[in-house]
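Supplementary Text 2. Reproducibility record for the structural model of the 138-residue chain.

All settings were left at their defaults, and a single model was retained for analysis rather than an ensemble. We include the record here because the model underlies the residue-level annotations in Supplementary Table 4.
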Amino acid sequence: AVPHCRYALSVLLEKLGVDQREVRINELSTVKEIKTAMEQTFGPPELTGWNPIYCDKMWQAIHNHLLSGLSRDYNSPLGLGHLYGLVSKMRLPSPMTRIMLKQSDIPDLHPTVVEFVTRWNRLCARYEGEELPIPGTL
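Retained model, structure tokens:
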């Protein structure tokens, strides 16, 4: 048995009144921790549109990346969202994309970028049978 350390991190956090801390994703994380990180980063699935069923596949992908020598950052909205997109093989929900883009420091107001995004959104809408967005809107 591991001896109890009175200075263990959990004891220190408890004394400071911290009952929940941010989850950092790595190869030692569990599926439950991945789900918690998704909730902390993107909010509840019912509000932001991500599906918790993919957390198990995300866990498997992290281990596959480790075995194949890929190093990835899963602790940012961009990294976690990218991992979710890889395993779900679906278009990311708009609320997730907005959260991911908040972290980006690349300006997206250039006319070429705006035109590309508009055309891409129209193509996706047409493919999915949705009503086409009004030109000039994202």
